[in-house]
Each structure stands twice: as structure tokens, then as C-alpha cells.
Amino acid sequence: MNSGRCAACKHLRRRCLSDCIFSPYFPPNNPRRFAYVHKIYGASNVGKILKDLPVSRRAEAADSLYYEAYCRIKDPVYGCVGLITILHQQIYNAQWQLDRIQAEIAALSTTTDHRSQSEVQQVENVGSSFLPDQNGVHDSNSFYDISNWFD
Amino acid sequence: MKSYQEQPRSSSSCAACKFLKRRCTSNCQFAPYFRSDEPKKFAKVHKVFGASNVSKILNEVAEDQREDTVDSLVYEAEVRLRDPVYGCIGAIASLQHRMVELQRDLILARARLASYVGHCSLSSFLDDHGGLFMAPNFLDIPESNSLPFDQFGRFHFP
């Protein structure tokens, strides 16, 4: 019964039985999905991971395995751990910026109205570096755009 | 860089060969990265990836990158064993969520700062830059409906 085979059984060139562990999560119209997880984890390991989970959690597990496999194929050295590192760095940078801006705000909010013109200019020069330019663009080179990783 | 093939044959097997119950030769691919005093390290990657797949991945990368590759594989395996459903994707989603919160806080803080330095009022700043609340998609999951998404189509940690 070739026409009813899931992507896994097609890839593995075997009959797809009615109780196939893979068929709900690796439909035949997406062969790449199983090919990726097979390349990184192997069919046997994926099957074991899925079987050890309650049925209600298997779809999420299959999805996350697919994405981790995708990351590893795209970056064989770091895989999705590379993304984690990037995110940690982005969070660190964003937190640093936020702390600086909040410190500026705190300084400005305690400044009295009798400060000198030069002091006002100094504060504006420093503060404006955290603001977008006239086109609404931030100097956000710390935000690494990884949204195209999954195109 | 020293070639591992030049090392004399060791009298003790590496952790991988011990686990696989085979002879550890002088040019064993795993020996530099799975020392015999770290048996759990190989056991974890074997359980998740399998020895053959680890070997293939190592063969794909340059020799000077293999240590980093093994470290990341071990990390991924550990996280997957701890969280069999989400693995590292769970950690990514959690960090992403934190990043979205920080971006929102930054927008608001910048708006407050702008109002303080007199560039514009707070409300007009938000009118002009409110779109920046839409953080970029870190994970785009076109074919998977089982993972919980937020309204921006991002994988959301439950």
C-alpha cells in the first residue's frame, strides 16, 4: 500500500503500518521534515523519543526535533546552541541599553530647572544616542536578525 | 595543529569505544573529545544522536571546530534528555520571550527619554514608533500547528 505511506516509511522504504509511530507527525507531503530528523538523529532514536512520550506531546516533540535538526544541518558546529548564544548576547545588550536609558531618565528626572544650558546640551547629546534617527531607525547592530534562518 | 593520528596507541579506550565495546585505535575519531574519565558525556550523545550520526557530523566539520561541535552536541543532548518534548527549542522560546519583553521595555524607555529631552511628547513618539513592538520572527514554523504560537506567529513557551 505505497500510496498511504508516511514520509518516514517512504524514506526508509518500508511498509507503513496502521500503528506507525511516525505517520501522524511526518506526513507524505513534507519529505524534507523526516529527512532532516533522520540525518541528525536517526529513525530509531526519533522513534524511541516519540514512543517514550504521551501521545498528546508527540506532535510538539516532532516539531522541536525537526527544528533542532534543521539548525544542526544549517550550522553543523553549533546547531541551535548557536541561536541560544546569540539570544543571550542580544538579551545582555538590550538589558545594558535599558539600564543606561533608565539611568539617564533617573538623572534627568532629578535635574532641577536651574541647570545651565551646557548641561542640558550634554544630557541631550548622550540621551539622543539611544533614540532612533529621523527615519525611525535605531543603531541596533546588537540585534542580530536570525529570522531568515528558517526560510 | 597536532594530528591526532600521530598519537601512540593508548592502552585505555576512550569513553566512546568503551561504551560501544570496541577496540580504541590510535586514530579513533572520538578519542580526542570523549575521554575515558567522562563516560556520561558520550552516553548522552549516543542516546540522542547515535554514534554513527555523531561521526558523520564530526566528519563534516573542520578538525579545529570539532571540539566546539562535540560541546554543542553534548549540550543539546543534555537538554533533550531533560526536556524530551522541547529540547533546546524550549530554551530558545523562553529567551525569545524575554527578548520581546526587553524590546518593549526599550521602546517605552526611549519614549520616556525622548519626552524628557524634549524631542517630542510621549504619545507622539509611540504613535511614530509603536510598530517597533513587532519583534522579528526568530522561529518560523510553517508546517507545524502543534506548537503554541503567540499572536505574532512566534513559538511561545507554554
Q: How would you sum up this structure, described in words?
A:
- Chain A starts with 6 loop residues before the first helix and ends in a 23-residue tail after the last helix.
- Chain A has six helices and no strands.
- In chain A, 59% of the residues lie in helices and 0% in strands.
- Helix content of chain B is 52%, strand content 0%.
- By secondary structure, chain B is mainly alpha-helical.
- The longest helix of chain B has 31 residues, at 87-117.
- Chain B has helices at 15-20, 39-48, 51-60, 66-82, 87-117, 122-129.
- The interface between A and B is large, with 61 and 56 residues.
C-alpha-based Rg of chain B, rounded: 24 Å
- What general form of chain B does the structure show? elongated
What summary fits the major beta sheet of chain B? none
Gyration radius over CA of chain A: 26 Å
How do the SSEs of chain A run, as a string of H and E?
HHHHHH
**Global morphology of chain A:** elongated
Helix content of chain B: 40-55%
**From the structure provided, what is the oligomeric state, counting identical versus distinct chains?**
heterodimer
The arrangement of helices and strands of chain B along the chain is HHHHHH
β-strand number of chain B: 0
Structural class of chain B: mainly alpha
The percentage helix of chain A is: 55-70%
Give the largest interface pair and sizes: A-B, 61 and 56 residues
Low-confidence stretches of chain B: 132-158
In angstroms, what separates the terminal alpha carbons of chain B?
A: 46 Å
Low-confidence parts of chain A, pLDDT < 50 over ≥5 residues?
112-120, 122-128, 139-151
